[in-house]
# Entry
Amino acid sequence: MQEPLTMTSAGEAAPEKPFSSVRVLLAGAIDYAGLFPPSAVSMSEAVANYAAYKHGEYSWMLGRFVVTASRLNEFAAEAAMVLKKGEKPWHVAVVAGDDIELSTYAVVEFNAVERTRFIADVMEVKAPTVEDIENAYRIIPRTVTAYYEVPLTERLPELIATLALRDQRAKIRTGGITPEAFPKEHDIVRFVRACSAANLPFKATAGLHHPLRCHRPLTYEPDAVTGRMHGFLNLFLMAAFVRDGRHIALLDELMAARDASEFRFDETGVRWRNEYVLTLWQLQQARLSGIQSFGSCSFVEPIVDLKELGIF
# Structure
């Protein structure tokens, strides 16, 4: 039986395969963080999920497995049971604890023991001050790429400048399980503009389960609090327009866009409101030097939403 066609926002049949613009924009974009709220699944379930995603139809969108430094050994024990013979090593992003020296030691030891099966090549570190950045920079080995989670306060320019001087990367928290955890659109734009000005790659985490800005339950509980959630398409496209530099006044509006009919993807790029265009080259540059990925406790939910929007 022929499967029913989904429809694009303009009412056309959805493409059989994602357009080149979609693949460029979202290749390796989702770091799987199933261990973290609101999903917070067990290690065995998270590992099984990741293994399935790696060999599934949408593996091209999958990034790293996200785990805390304190659970690296638990991860290795579970993942070893599902790793296929001859499979390339899994890449892991490690969320550091409060003791950066202890977390770094755990990563170094993990890589020494597990490097043929798993590679912890990314660390995510909270860095509310310049001193925190300098301390972690001194400790973390250069073989590991570090992302520093910085607060969206008046300190932001100084923190971003410090990261740029040290050739490091930034991280922004875009949500959580309470309405207060979601920053304002303008603050996200301010962060991305600061990173772009410093030519600083960055990643995002939390609250980006859905492609476009929406009002949804913030957890999976039956009586969950609802609130506004930022969209990962809004963020990724905004990051690309920031680098274009011609439409700065519209960036807040783009972050708040909720209507899928405003966006059109094709083989040459993406168009917003039928007026503002990003070429494949611009999308490539945004991913290469700007937005690297976003952490999500669900890999399936973003894909289901993209299908429902007719993007693929």
